[in-house]
Amino acid sequence: MVQPKAVEVSSTTSVPGRAEIVIVGGGVVGCSVAYHLTRLGRSDVVLLEKGLLSSGTTWHAAGIVGQLRNHTTLTRMMLEGSALYATLEDETGLSTGWNQSGALWVASTSDRVVQLRRTIDVARAQGLEAHFVDQREAARMWPQMRSEDLVGGVWLPHDAKANPTDVTQALARGARAGGASIYEGVKVTGIDVVRGRVRGVRTSHGDIECEVVVNCAGQWAKAVAASIGVTVPLYSAEHYYVVTEAVEGLDRTTPTLRDPDGFVYFKEEVGGLLMGGFEPNAKPWVASEDIPEPFEFQLLPEDWEQFAPMMDNAVHRVPAMEEVGVRKFYNGPESFTPDHNFIMGEAPEVLGFFVAAGFNSSGIAFGGGAGSALARWIVSGEPDMDMTPVDIRRFASFQNNRDWLRSRVTEIVGLHFAMAWPNREPESSRPIRCSPVHGLLEQAGACFGTKLGWERPNWFAPEGTKPVVEYSWGRQNWFPFAAAEHRAARESVALFDQTSFAKYVVRGREATAALQWLCSNDVDVPVGKIVYTGVLNDQGGYEADLTLTRTAWNEYLVVTSSGQAVHDLDVLRRGIDPERHAEVVDVTSTYAVFSVMGPRSRAVLQELTSEPLDNDTFPFGSSRLLNLAGVTVRANRLTYVGELGWELYVPTEVALEAYQRLMEAGDRHGMRLGGYYAIESLRLEKGYRAWGRELTPETTPVEAGLLFACKLSGDVAFRGRPAVEKHRRVGVRRRLVTLQVEDPDAYAWGNELLLRDGRPVGFATSAAFGHTVGSVVMMGYVERTDGGDVDAEWLRTGQYQTAIGGELFDARMSLRPLYDPTGERIKA
């Protein structure tokens, strides 16, 4: 790795007094954003780098560029970046070191083989080439590898390698050719914010007035953002690799080799090997605020003790590693995020402040596509793809705590190569956010998962059973316990603690008018009425999926999912015209939520209140304050499990007492505690959609089968209405369906390939075992690739299958819920 010299950048001691867009950070991502902004016609762009271009973490990156990811947006970014790197030299005249030599992943356990076969299914669903190879073929492709203990592998022929410094310099030259100005040796010392909006940056060489700041500062991005109160949860960890002397038989055509069971990877480097890894217990470095100055083209001290387990595994996999000399040991810190996905988007705290950082050792691979996606976001004002997995608004402020982050990054680094178990939960930095009855749930045997820091019961272990998940690709150890909770909701009654729901109050004399524009459904309803609605973007895609309860003429209680708390609050606040008399207040911590669901739920609640709960007095879709044995709660009659039931919104200070009284009454009716795994199987049988899976910014009400939640019969305008009307008029190329796998022994988790008449047509957005119907239930979008409309007739005439771990299973398609399609039970 050679330290670069500045290429075609300004060396003046002053900076312009004004620019439209200022980019902070001259690594591969910052240069990519600048490049793509100029390609979109924005030439009034200034990029500031306090050292030299690529001098942060870019210069010591390994430069491995994959293509396949488990989310279509991430794969699209990788593909766009690959296409850019392959042609950038022709455009700019600077080499990128692009080498499409492919990649081989190998497996030494049967569980890893299942994961790799699922990888192939995901590739087919996304239109990418991937091939399973047996032990003999893997050995032929990588003859220097010990292979007798392997049980298979995956060959990805279009994966590649690039030189990080060369890519950065080529992007910088392209950006400058498009009109951008690049300044090295200029440090940003502050950012000016006026009334919640960016107004300029202060630098070591003068101030720059601007409308947009793009934070691409790498491992310094957290500190840059924190200076103006923006949450960018990053923490640096040490990352190691070695470069060896020449190894016989290696050349530029040698594929990248990944051995995830050994936590290591290998890449040919000038005839030798670049070997690194991602250990399960990583070594944190320092918080963003504590990085020493200057820290340009610097490495940390060698740590052979920390590296030893990976070195031992590398020697086992490639025996030549034991004899060949090591030219250089690299210990270059890189920043990691709490969930192993990078951070992108406009900060909810400050308008005009965009972030692209925290690439978790994948900055080169993602840099080209991510820079393009963010540039389009900046120019258009909203993303044009589903950014759910990387959206900055998926994090809350508590996740910016340095101690919390330090603990989490120790675990996160290892997720690069850890087994990608379905429903895997993080173990570090927990617990942090708890329901008022958390302790009682723990005593009852709850096995907790986490969502935006909330501890939520996934299932309950019976007495004598440890509430610990034993991960596998098939039925896990909690299966019979979640089944019992499922049946309790279907046949008698269950109580679910859903306190983690995000909750807001929208109020003001123009609250109704503001929400009528934002919401697809009609919210001008009587007080006490509940409305299910989407919040759409201009393309008709879902920005949020909400339940609104009108609690007064000028007030609504808005409820959304736990993980969308920051995102949906931002959507509401941005969507309400500041000139309107309406405000949004986050009241999530004000209420606990206990959902009492099942045929006997009415009997349980009736023991605690003298107020009538019959259909005439308290119909489905209505809400009112209810006296439950001396505790006043808001009772909402609705359901996410497909049964008679009520969600009870209980003031936090009385939640413990209300819970105990509910449990006492429930005991007399056989009430059972239920967790989120049961909710998942219940809602899939009923065909209820989930945000981030069935509903995304790229899915519309027509595709999702939710036109009933759009006010199209009248002339009330709402955002996205023209797009929805167009989709309804001209038809769509994909629709959401439910599939029931015919084999009762099959088990699926979601993201499985779907086939119609033997051809890939999509993937499962969600999957779970339906304990009422007796087999796996999936939901997913079936797409028609010939350009025709996906109507009901076309859907019904196909024969459907799903690929689970490489094995095909027949499935029955339905456009109606498999369970209670007429909704009689929820209105009982």
Structure in words:
The protein has 828 residues and is α+β, with helices and mostly antiparallel strands. It folds into 4 domains: 1-98 and 159-233 and 337-417, FAD/NAD(P)-binding domain (3-Layer(bba) Sandwich); 103-157, no CATH class; 434-727, Probable tRNA modification gtpase trme, domain 1 (Gyrase A, domain 2); 733-828, Elongation Factor Tu (Ef-tu), domain 3 (Beta Barrel). Helix content is 25%, strand content 27%. It is built from 19 helices and 40 strands. It has an 8-stranded mixed sheet with strand order 5-6-4-15-16-17-14-18. Strands 8-2-1-12-21-20 form a 6-stranded mixed sheet. A 6-stranded mixed sheet has the order 31-32-33-30-24-34, with helices on both faces. Strand 27 and strand 28 (555-560) form a beta hairpin. The chain is globular and about 80 Å long.
* Strand residue percentage: 25-35%
Q: Write down how many β-strands occur, each being a DSSP E stretch of 2 or more residues.
A: 40
SS element count, helices:
19
Strand order of the largest sheet: 5-6-4-15-16-17-14-18
Instruction: Give the class from helix and strand content and strand pairing.
Output: alpha+beta
Q: CATH homologous superfamily of the largest domain - what is it?
A: Probable tRNA modification gtpase trme, domain 1
- N-C termini distance: 70 Å
**Could you say how many structural domains there are in total?**
4
Shape field: globular
Q: pLDDT under 50 segments (min length 5)? A: 1-8
CATH architecture of the largest domain: 2-Layer Sandwich
CATH topology of the largest domain: Gyrase A, domain 2
Q: What is the overall pLDDT average?
A: 96
Q: How would you sum up the major sheet? A: 8 strands, mixed
- Rounded to an integer, what's the Rg over CA atoms? 27 Å
Fraction in helix = 10-25%
- CATH top level of the largest domain is Alpha Beta
